[in-house]
Write a structure and sequence with these properties.
Layout lengths: L3 E4 L8 H16 L5 H6 L5 H11 L8 H19 L11 H10 L3 E4 L6 H8 L7 E2 L13 H9 L7 E5 L2 H9 L3 E5 L10 E3 L7 H7 L2
Parallel strand pairs: 1-2, 1-4, 2-3, 4-5, 5-6
Helix pairs in contact: 1-4
This protein binds 1,6-di-O-phosphono-alpha-D-glucopyranose and magnesium ion.
Protein name: Beta-phosphoglucomutase
EC number: 5.4.2.6
Enzyme class: isomerase
Length: about 220
Amino acid sequence: DIKGFVFDLDGVITDTSVFHSQAWHQVADKVGAPWSQELEDGLKGISRMDSLEMILKAGNLSDKYTEDEKVDLATEKNTNYLKLVDQMTPANILPGIKKFLDDLKAHNYLISLASASKNAPKVLSKLQLTDYFPQIVDPQSLTKGKPDPEIYLKGAELINLKPEQCIGVEDAAAGVEAINAANETSIGIGDPKILAAADIKFNDTGEMTLDHIKSQMN
Ligand code: G16
Ligand code: MG
């Protein structure tokens, strides 16, 4: 029986993925790496340093920068990103999410957050959703990023559930892969072609209700 939900943040609770892309795009232009929709999609759910590495690789620039210079570039991206986050309000919560979280609470489901973002607590606070997520996986405690299952296993552990008792909710292919590898039930929100591996698929957050989930389970 499902007893809890482990949530991704960016692209599920709110659309910070647009801000991440914008902030990285500025860095890509600066270093002269080519930007594409494919690269943009591939960065979703990927940690900050891994994202930078993907961008540099796309421009064959990986060897051009020292580790220190790479840290500086990643810091620059984060500065760009935080300027955008600072303008966020509860109006940036994606459609249906507030009601879905209220329904989960009303039905006593446990909730945790499995975001790769070190800025997740700040984003939740801007959205005034902090109280819904008493358990947040600390991305600094991870040894591997998505698609490794580690973050989703920790998300279940934080709410004292077995992975099989949890549903993981994602917008990124790497994240769905992580949920499946953790042995949780996966919900993929977005382009069904990109999220083909998800157990349950919705085109957007507004479609995600407890009833719709139940009707798609087995
Ligand atoms: C998010 C984004 C990624 C971002 C990562 C790290 O993951 O989707 O694009 O690179 O967090 O974010 P930060 O630089 O703020 O630490 P998720 O797991 O919330 O989708
Ligand atoms: Mg995401």
